[in-house]
# Entry
Amino acid sequence: MSLGMSRIGYIGFKGGELVRGHSEYLQGEMDKEIKRLIDEGEQLAERVIEERKDEIERLANMLIEKESLGLVEIVEILGEKPGGYPKRFIEFLETRKEVEKELEEEPK
# Structure
């Protein structure tokens, strides 16, 4: 059995299924809590989309132009993720930018 914590206290699960043995009232409270969590997630998603609308539009336009993007292109458009990236990934991005610059400067 595992337990989950919410504003209504511990809720028991066994094998991924909710352990019954609680009242209709408690079931209603759990349903309210689930709805609250979903609503909060939806509000957060809407806020992030609104705050990053310009980046999302640039990403969409680049996808229309190129049809697919790699992680490097996505990072260039959206910027770093909260918490940053591992040092090795940042080094990779910097090296790639240097190589691309050198290739652009070479005579054709």
